[in-house]
Amino acid sequence: MPNTSPQNRPQPATGRRPRLVIPERVRWAIEVLAPAGAEEILEIGSGPGVAAALVCERLTTGRLLAVDRSRVATERIAQRNTAHMDSGRLTVQQCSLAALTVPHRSFDKAFAINVNLFWVADPSEELEVLSRALRPGGVLYILYGASGPTGADRITGPIGAALHEHGFTDVTVVTADAGIGVAARAPATIP
Question: Domain for residue 80, yes or no?
């Protein structure tokens, strides 16, 4: 039987955080989003905060607002991203997207990874919030990992139709080995 006394167990390197495992769908989504510089970005359904960390690392003077309806998720985001919160680069808010209140035209981009509300139910309230929150021409990315719950057509068709219906333009299906999704530009006028 191996000796598992405390002095024989592998110890983490002092002063180093455990290595973060980043799912391929998140890496891909951040590449599609391409956050940079001074952009103001909204993340919808932020989960454990992995994507938030990657976005904040790319921002210089920009900021990210990460929203999730789950208290547990928002606590995890905050714990994982303490330095980004302390720097003012990240704000975390617990609420549903439909209940989100932000000043009109606050964001250059918004994104969601594996958030099903956009295709399993009527996303009218959420798209109205996003059309007000995004600056004219701002881009919304609704993205799903390739190992998602269903085929691309079942997801991208309803999402694209809903975006068109709510005045979004340049609606484009995004596909890659790592994922699928839809990107669209915010309406020029607030509905």
Answer: yes
